[in-house]
Amino acid sequence: MIEHSIQLAPSILASDFAHLADQVERATAGGASVIHVDIMDGHFVPNLTLGPPVVKSLRRATRLPLDCHLMIENPDQYIAEFADAGADWISVHQEACRHLNRTLNLIKQHECRAGVVINPATPVETLSEVLDIVDYVLVMSVNPGFGGQKFIPGTLHKMRKLAEIRADRGYRYRIEVDGGVGMDTVAEVVRAGAEILVAGNAVFGKGDAKVNAQTLLEAARSASLQRV
Question: Quick check: is 41 catalytic?
Answer without folding.
Answer: no
